Structures are given as structure tokens and as C-alpha cells.
Amino acid sequence: MSSRRWRSWADRDQVDRVDLYTRQSLYVLLWSFTALTAVQASHEVPAEDSGLAVAVAVGGFVVTLAAHRVLSDVIALYPAYRPLPWRSLGPFLGLSVVGFLVVLTLPTEVRGFGVMLLWSAAAWSLVGLRGRRTTAAVLVVLAAAPALAAREPWFLLGGLAIALFVLFTVRASLWLLGVVRELDRARATRSALAVAEERLRFSRDVHDVLGRRLSAIALQAELGAKLARRGDPAAADRMLEVREVAHEALREARELARGYSPTDLAQELEGARSLLRSAGIEVALDVEDLPAELHEPAGWVVREAVTNVLRHSEATRVVISYDGAALRVANDRPTAADGGDGTGLSSLATRLAGVGATLEVEGGEDRFAVVVRLSDAGVLR
To answer: Which helix (H) or strand (E) holds 66?
Structure first.
């Protein structure tokens, strides 16, 4: 093998290698049986029939060439049943029928040689076709052809036994190729799912980080506009706060884009307190007993819940607490839109499920709470 061909083989992936190996193996078996039959015939056919035997060998070569095309299409079709590859199958069947009828008129020795050539070509090319009726028809033909040519009924059993062996050999090779192809498709699907999951995670982080900041900017800008209409000097201070929050949002967006966005609970709590107080909302924190292993998911909860408060409530007070079994973020004065079916909370619930925690929503006319409880197999345990 030349170095160029070796590099070409080395550059193939595993599926291409198995495909190439399977094809070449079946092609070798097809042509090897034709060659062995010809060699055997050269020793058994009488000298006076040698010219006739050469003609039969040439015809057998043509039929085997057609069978090669059929076998190639059968491999490409597997594991599907339909459509049958009639563009190659039709000419092959026509040649085989004509060849078999001609062979039946030949002397006994040459007739056996011709039948074996036709039988070998049909067996190796057709047994890979799937479907009960198709398989049954192929086996019947392969069993009956030798018996009909030899005019010996017991040849039915011999033909059927060899046909079943060829069937097993071809189907086993194609089954292995099918398994490798399916595994490759599963690997590609897994890679696509990993990409989709990463995109979902990124979009969730963007929602969590920027949603809260943008909500704060909207509230402070609205308050600044009201102060400006009244001519209140505090309007300028409010707009400076808006600028500060915008700069913070830009910094966090850059960190997200670079992949540097670990959730720090202390930072989330401080950010939540700053944002809520800037919106005129009183904040109470009671999370000193929260275990360290819960800090990461707790940060997700604080981030999303505070975003919800800023967007969907007219709250005056928010309490973030942990009682040993559940983390709770509660606020007063929820609005009608302050429900628990938003995209943010749904995404948060999915994310928490991955670490063994469950999210619940408690609501009423005068209060709303996001509660995160731990299962028996949760992150605490």
C-alpha cells in the first residue's frame, strides 16, 4: 500500500473504516467464489468442452459484475427495506434468468459450472435484501435452482443450507455496519444536545444577570424622570445611579461572554440588597446558617427571585431567609402578573432539579414567595 493510500486510510473516521472493511470483505467473497468455481471447472470440464466453458466463464464474469453493483446498492440501502434498488437489480435479474435458461441447454459438466457461477452471484448479492417476503423468495430461488439444473430433488437441501450460511454471513456483516452507523449517529446527537444545553445555559445566565440589572435601570430611570419633572435636584443622583448600574451590567455581560460567571452567594446578596434599596425596597437577610455546598444554587435563586420582585411587584419589603430546610425569598404587594409560571422561574426549577432541589411558589393577595426545598438526595445530603 502506498504512503498516499495509507494516509487516506488513516484520515478516515471509524464509521468509514468499518464501512470500507465491510464492503471490501463482501466484494472479496463474491469474486472469490466466482474465481474458485472457474478454477474448479478448469479441472473438471472435458477438453472438448473447454471453449464452451470459457464462454460460460465470460458470461459468469458479466453476471458477477452486475451482482457487484447490486451488492453495493444493498449495502447502501441497509437497514431499510425499501425502495429496492431496481436500477441495478433489474438488469442483474434479467441477465441471471437468461443465463440460467441458456445454461440448462449445455452439457452436464458445463451446466454445473454455469449454475454455480449464477448461484454464487445471486446468493452474495441478494441475501442482504431485507423483508420477510423478499428473503423467502431469495431462499426459495437459491434452493430450487441447483435442484432444477441437476434434476435431483435432494439438491434442495444442499442449496438451502449453503444459502442460509451465505445469508448469515452477509446479514451479520451488515448488522455490524448498522450498529456502528447507529452509534455514530447517537454520538452526533449527543454532541448536538451538549451544544443545545450549553446555549440554554448561556441564555439562562444572560436572563438571570442582565434581567435584574435592566429591571433596576428601568425603575431608577422612571424615578429619575419623575424627580426631573418636579425639578428635584435628586434626579441627577438617580441618573448617576442608572449609569452605575448600566456599567455593572456591561461588566457582567463581558464576563458572561468570556465564560467567567461563577455564582457567588455573598456577591449576589450584596447586589440584591443594593438594587432593592435603590428601588426603595427594604431588605432583610437571614441566611447565615446556609451550608457552603448550597451557596451556588442559592445564588441562582436570589438572582432570579430579585429579578422577579423588580419586574412583577410593587414591593416595599423583601425577606431572604433560610430555616434549615428551605431557602425562601418573599416579598409583599405582588401584582396580578406576579405568578410562578414565568420563563425565568421555569428555567430555574429545571436547573435546580439537576442538583436535587425543588422550587415551589407561594402566593397570595399580599405576599409572594419563592421557596427552594431539598430532597432526600439533595445537595445538602
So the answer is: helix 50-77
Q: Which helix (H) or strand (E) holds 369?
A: strand 367-374
CA distance 93 to 127: 14
Contact call for residues 278 and 241 (beta carbons, < 8 A): yes
How many whole angstroms separate alpha carbon 374 and alpha carbon 155? 74
Are residues 31 and 166 located together in one domain of the fold?
yes
Where does a domain end: 189, 222, 248?
A: 189
| Rounded-to-integer distance, Cα 104 and Cα 102, Å | 5
C-alpha grid cell for residue 369? 414567595
Give yes or no: residues 295 and 185 share one domain: no
Helix (H, G, I), strand (E, B) or coil at 170: helix
Domain endpoint, select from 189, 216, 232: 189
The verdict on residue 226 lying in a domain is no
pLDDT tens track for 16-59: 788 788 888 888 888 888 888 777 766 666 666 667 777 777 88
321, 323, 324, 325 alpha-carbon torsion, rounded to 10°: -90
Range(s) of the domain holding residue 156: 3-189
How many DSSP H helices and E strands does the chain contain?
A: 11, 5
Does a structural domain hold residue 252? no
* pLDDT per residue as tens digits for the range 334-379: 876 544 445 678 878 887 887 888 898 988 888 899 999 864 434 4
**Strand, helix or coil for residue 380:** coil
Distance of alpha carbon 353 from alpha carbon 23, whole angstroms: 47
Same-domain pairing of 173 and 297: no
**What residues contact residue 263 under an 8 Å CB cut-off, 6+ apart?**
295, 296, 299, 300, 303
This model's pTM is above 0.70:
no
> Which of 56-62's residues contact partners 24+ apart within 8 Å by CB, and which partners?
56/103, 56/106, 56/110, 56/113, 56/114, 56/117, 57/113, 57/117, 59/99, 59/102, 59/114, 59/117, 60/34, 60/99, 60/114, 60/117, 60/118, 60/121, 61/34, 62/95
Q: Answer yes or no: is 185 within a domain.
A: yes
- Say if 196 falls within a structural domain: no
| CA nearest neighbour of 73 among 57, 93, 96, 44 | 93
